[in-house]
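During the reporting period the student researcher (J.K.) took over the structure-prediction task from the postdoctoral fellow and processed the backlog of single-chain submissions. One of the processed entries is reproduced below for the supervisory committee.
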Amino acid sequence: METKEPLNIDEVHAGTLKIVEKLSSICDMLHIDYFVAYGSLIGAIRHKGFIPWDDDFDVIMLRPDYDKFVNYCYKHEKELYPFKILNREVSKNYPYTISRFEDMRYKAVYDNIVDYDSGMFVDVYPYDGAGTDEIAARKKIGWKKDILAKCVGWAIRNEYTRPENQSTIVAVLKYIGFKVVHLIGKDFFLNQYEKLSNTYSFEDSTLVGCLCWDGGLYVLDKKLFEKSITVPFENIMVKIPAQYDEILKRSYGDYMKLPPKEERVATHEYTLYKR
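J.K. obtained the following C-alpha cells:
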C-alpha cells in the first residue's frame, strides 16, 4: 500500500466526480444516455449533490447503451487509463455482475470480499427488458433472484459472519450452507445471474430493470427512461431521468424527507486509498 491514511469523504467525493465527468463525456461522444440512480438520484434532487453521509455513486444504462459503453471501454483501454471498466470480462476474480467504471489511481481495500484489484469507482447497472407484465415477471424470475442474491452474497465473502441474536441452530445451518456455496464456487452463481439478463427481449419489453443483480425484482416502465435532463450535482452537471419524481416516489416514497439520524451512515465494505 502506497499510503497509510484512508481517503476522507471529501476526497472520495472529489475523486468520484472526476469519474462521473469522464463517464459522461464518453456517453456524450457515443450519443448514449446514462441516468443517475438510486441514492445518488436522491442526492441530486434533495441535496444538489452527494447525500452528505454517503460516498458512492450509481448510474443505470439501458442495455443497448450499456453494451455500447462497455465495448468502447474495452477497445480503448490504454487511452482511457487511469480510467477503466471493470467487470467479469476483464477480471477473473471480479465478484459482481454489474460493471464499475474506475479510477485506478486509487485502491479499494475490502473487508470481507474476495480479493481483486479495484480502484475508486462508479457502479454502472444495466437495465434489461423485463417483459410486459410485472406480476408474471416476478413469478418467473423474482424468486430466482432472491436465491441467487443469498448464494452470491455468501460466495463472494471470505468468512461467514454470524449476526447478533441468531440462534445456534440457525447459525449452524447457515454456516453449512455457506460452506456448500463455497464448494460450488461464485462463478456458478454469477453465471446464473447473468443468464437472467436474457430472459426477455429488450425491444419487445415495456418494462425494464436490473435483472442480473440484487434480490427480488424491481421493474419500471421503459418509457420513464425515454428522456434525460441535466441537473447540477456538486460542481458538475449530470443526467437524470426527466420523470425522476415518479421513479423516486415509487422507489422511496417521500424521498425529500431525511432519514432518522441513526440511519445517516455509509454502509460499504471497503476503504479507499491513493495508490
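The committee noted the following: The mean pLDDT is 93.
J.K. will present the remaining backlog at the next meeting.
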